[in-house]
What we know:
Blueprint: H1 8-11, E1 13-16, H2 23-39, E2 44-46, E3 66-67, H3 78-84, H4 87-95, E4 102-104, E5 107-109, H5 127-134, E6 138-142, H6 149-154, H7 156-162, H8 167-181, E7 186-192, H9 209-218, E8 227-233, H10 240-249, E9 255-258, H11 262-270, E10 274-278, H12 282-291, E11 294-298
Parallel strand pairs: 1-2, 1-6, 5-6, 7-8, 7-10, 8-9, 10-11
Antiparallel strand pairs: 2-3, 4-5
Helix pairs in contact: 2-12, 11-12
Amino acid sequence: xxxxxxxxxxxxxxxxxxxxxxxxxxxxxxxxxxxxxxxxxxxxxxxxxxxxxxxxxxxxxxxxxxxxxxxxxxxxxxxxxxxxxxxxxxxxxxxxxxxxxxxxxxxxxxxxxxxxxxxxxxxxxxxxxxxxxxxxxxxxxxxxxxxxxxxxxxxxxxxxxxxxxxxxxxxxxxxxxxxxxxxxxxxxxxxxxxxxxxxxxxxxxxxxxxxxxxxxxxxxxxxxxxxxxxxxxxxxxxxxxxxxxxxxxxxxxxxxxxxxxxxxxxxxxxxxxxxxxxxxxxxxxxxxxxxxxxxxxxxxxxxxxxxxxxxxxxxxxxxx
Length: 320
């Protein structure tokens, strides 16, 4: 897809001010805004991507992340364009962002407060949103879960292309995984989300290393495949005692443990053939989507039954 440069005042634009969540949540949210922008032929200035833009080479100007086209700051003209390309103004809007769901002037706002989900009302694939954009040269988007699932499916390849990590990181993981495939049939990424999941929702989606091994050994039918396991975790296991417990849990399985940067581990997961992860982890689910990897989502509830778990096709961000 060609990324063209255009003047925001002449053609109109969306300003996305949401910066809620970490990398996985950020990408889940952008998949929908990106797809809607492609579908409705709009260009987005996304200030919520600025601090993670360095991970994605397709973002040509990390100081002013835009998609699917590019807007060069020096091409902006007039007072309005100057203001809208000013991070100071965007930061003020972010601080003052309306908590109310709905339309407030040029702002299309979806409330993301805990316990409230108004994403259905503020979807991006409705005639109401299309009319809202047609009536304005500038639209300010505020919301964590602005959704258009069918358009994400339609434009998934362009989304993957835009949010592809650097080739230097991808090439490393391609080589590492290729080396493993010389001795094993498949490479399985295990993402053990630990730090925040131990306490979030009462630990419902946290599993210990021993519990992951229990699921791998007793709940998944590997058939005739000979798998190698790449273990990723946000827990560094820097304590020798903790690392010994980890290696003891996986001692009967061929494995390697990795704990790198946020983007490095995500890229590693992307290149695995299959992924086993916490069911609600947008981080690991994005890796499955980006790498087209079959996956299994787990939770503590799964430890209570004995049914066999089957790999599913890669998930789409908020496909429901």
